[in-house]
Design a protein that fits this description.
This is LysR family transcriptional regulator. It comes from Elysia marginata. Keywords: DNA-binding, Transcription, Transcription regulation. Belongs to the LysR transcriptional regulatory family. It is a single chain. The chain is an alpha/beta fold. It folds into 3 domains: 85 residues, Orthogonal Bundle (Arc Repressor Mutant, subunit A), CATH 1.10.10.10; 111 residues, D-Maltodextrin-Binding Protein, domain 2, CATH 3.40.190; 94 residues, D-Maltodextrin-Binding Protein, domain 2 (3-Layer(aba) Sandwich), CATH 3.40.190.10. The chain is built from 14 helices and 12 strands. The strands form 3 sheets. The chain has a 5-stranded mixed β-sheet. A 5-stranded mixed β-sheet has the order 9-8-10-7-11. It has a two-stranded antiparallel sheet with strand order 1-2. Strand 8, helix 10 and strand 9 form a beta-alpha-beta unit. The radius of gyration is 31 Å and the shape is rod-shaped. 26% of the residues are buried.
């Protein structure tokens, strides 16, 4: 059947056909479909014209399907089931799903926000699989193209589109996961610790290690310093947080990092944390996805699990530091 013929085809005819098959009575089929006796008679007439067959013949107890009607039944039932499946909202069953997800995240989010998440997902949905990638300069485009389904990123709470959420494409949706702030990490025994004051002048006298952020080595921090005609002396730039932490731990370079990441670093590395010695907007971790997944039941389920998990990670002690 050609597309133009399908366009002129009335779906109600197939629904009426199944009702007549099941009820074997024009009056009962009319009652079931909330139609008049006249309307069901006209529907049957159109069916007979469409299939060039009587389809139903009158017998003493109602209607009897013809061999042609019996032959049509299986295909029409299958077509209606497939159509219902296509137009009805998908019901996601995590315990039975084989869904595969593609995620991306900035490096600092894995240890501070996503620890334990993947084990939880595996318990709830053992057939679900994931590919997880580092957040890269092209990841925004990949989100828009559907090659990445979900991302965890960090944006400063600022109107500056380069660093804030206003710079995100309008087709992307997001939920705030946690708020954070910048702090300074340095090795134990760092010379700056012997200074009587830890202020902006002391901070700027130090050498710094910087992490690329979305392909940039220039953060809002540096933009704000520029506005004051000031600049950090960044001598090393690296692609991830742990590389910067290692350099900081084994040199006199200062690493300006997010507080939640710093809290994890203090547990396992010989570093000391000091506050950033000037006022700067906070940073927000965001869960980001494309609008095409707004009503995807599996996607909604995973987003809810991530939001739920991050919320459980934000214990009162950590929340007070935000």
């Amino acid at each position: 059947m050609t597309l133009d013929r399908l366009f002129r085809f009335d779906l109600k005819l197939l629904v009426g056909f199944i009702a007549l098959l099941e009820e074997r009575s024009a009056s009962r089929a009319a009652l079931r479909l909330h139609l008049s006796q006249s309307a069901i008679s006209k529907l049957l007439g159109r069916l007979r014209e469409l299939f060039d067959d009587p389809l139903f013949v009158r017998v003493t107890h109602g209607l009897e399907p013809t061999p042609r009607a019996i032959q049509l039944e299986g295909g029409i039932r299958l077509a209606l089931r497939q159509l219902m499946s296509a137009v009805e909202p998908e019901i996601f069953s995590p315990e039975h799903s084989q869904r595969h997800f593609v995620l991306a995240s900035i490096g600092s989010a894995y240890p501070v926000l996503l620890t334990g998440l993947f084990g939880r997902i595996q318990t709830l949905a053992p057939g679900v699989t994931m590919n997880c990638y580092d957040w890269q300069p092209d990841s925004i485009n990949q989100l828009q193209q559907g090659r990445i389904e979900l991302a965890v990123i960090a944006k400063e709470v600022t109107d500056n589109p380069t660093y804030g959420t206003s710079g995100l494409p309008r087709s992307l949706r997001y939920r705030e996961l946690a708020e954070d702030r910048n702090v300074c990490l340095m090795r134990k025994g760092h010379p700056a610790l012997s200074d009587t004051t830890w202020d902006l002048a002391t901070y700027l006298r130090q050498l710094h290690v910087q992490v690329y952020c979305e392909g940039r080595d220039y953060w809002l921090l540096d933009y704000r310093l520029d506005q004051m005609n000031l600049r950090r002396n960044i001598t090393v730039r690296v692609p991830d947080f742990y590389a910067a932490l290692s350099i900081c731990e084994h040199s006199d370079l200062i690493f300006t990092a997010l507080n939640l990441f710093a809290g994890e670093a203090l547990k396992h590395h010989a570093v000391v944390q000091l506050p950033l010695p000037f006022s700067l907007e906070p940073v927000t971790y965001l869960l980001v996805w494309h609008e095409r997944y707004d009503n995807d039941s599996a996607h909604i389920w995973l987003r809810e699990r991530i939001i739920e998990h991050v919320g459980s990670q934000m214990v009162p002690e950590a929340s007070k530091q935000l």
